[in-house]
Amino acid sequence: MNPEHKIALITGGANRVGGHITRALARAGADVVIHYHRSETEARATADEVRAMGVQAYLVGADLNDIQALDRLFQEIEEAAGGLDILINSAAIMESIPFEDVTPGDWERTMNINLRAPFFCIQKAAAMMSRRGAGAIVNISDIAGRQPWPRFPVHSLSKSAVEMLTAVSALTFGPEIRVNAVAPGPVLKPRSMSDERWQALGQDLPLQRTGSAEDVARAVLFLIENDYITGETIAVDGGNQWVS
Q1: Which of 24, 117, 170, 212 could form a disulfide with 179 if both were Cys (CB 3.0 to 4.6 A apart)?
Q2: What backbone torsions phi and psi does residue 44 show, to the nearest 5 degrees?
Q3: Which domains does the chain have, with CATH numbers?
Q4: What is the pLDDT of residues 117-164, one digit of tens each?
C-alpha cells in the first residue's frame, strides 16, 4: 500500500517511538490520526510538525484501558477523517514488577493496554478498512515477547500474545487487509538508564550498537508498502534475539 493520501491511526503516536512512526507516515504523504492519553501537549506539537509537511493531522484522546473510550476513539475518527486505511498499534506500557509481586490490577492494566486494546483496535479498524476495500495494520511488539524477561513478566506475556494476535488477524482479515508486526530491541534509551549502560548494551549485540526509533519507523513503512507480506513479525533489534 502506498501511504500517500491514506488515513493512518497511530495509537500512542504523540512521542517516543510512536511519534517517530507518525512523522515517518506524514513524510510518506499519509494523513495521520494521532492518539494520545496523557501526552496532549506532545500530541499537539507532533500535529503541528506534520501539518507543516503538508498533510492533515487529527488528534484523538482516549484511555485505552477503558473499552468505552476505545469505542469513542473510532467514532471520532469516522466523524473527523471519514475512514481509515492504516492502523499502527504502538501504545503500550512496560512495568517492572517481579512475578511474585504482580497483582490482578497489575495484570489487567498491562493486558488491557498491551493486548486487549490492539485486539479491539484491529477489530474496529478492519470494519472501517473493509468498506474502503483494503488496509494495512502493523502492531508494535517487543523482543520481550520472544525472550523471557523475569523483571517484566506480564509485559513479556502481553507482547508474546501480540505476535499471535498478528498471525491470527492476518489469517482472519486477508486478503484485503494485511497485518504484520515489528519487534523492537534497544532502539530508544529508557529515561532511567545511564548513557554508559546504554552504550554497553549496544556493544553486546552482533551489530555492536543500539538502534533508533527511526529504524522502527522505517520497518513499519516497509511492512505497509510491501503488499506480499502478512502475518509476519520483523525484529528490529541489532541481532539481540540471537544473544544468549
Answers
A1: 170
A2: -65, -40
A3: 7-242 (3.40.50.720)
A4: 999 999 999 999 999 999 999 999 999 999 888 999 999 999 999 999
> Do 179 and 173 touch, CB atoms closer than 8 A?
yes
Q: What percent of the chain has pLDDT over 90?
A: 92
The residue-averaged pLDDT of 195-218 equals 93
The grid coordinates of residue 213 equal 526509533
Q: Cell digits for 49?
A: 510538525
**Could you give phi then psi for residue 59, rounded to 5 degrees?**
-110, 130
Per the CB < 8 A criterion, the answer to whether 84 and 128 are in contact is yes
**pLDDT tier for residue 190 given thresholds of 50, 70 and 90:** confident
Report the alpha-carbon distance of residue 193 to residue 180 in Å, rounded.
30
Q: Which three cell numbers stand for residue 179?
A: 497485518
3-state secondary structure of 110: helix
192: which DSSP letter?
Answer: T
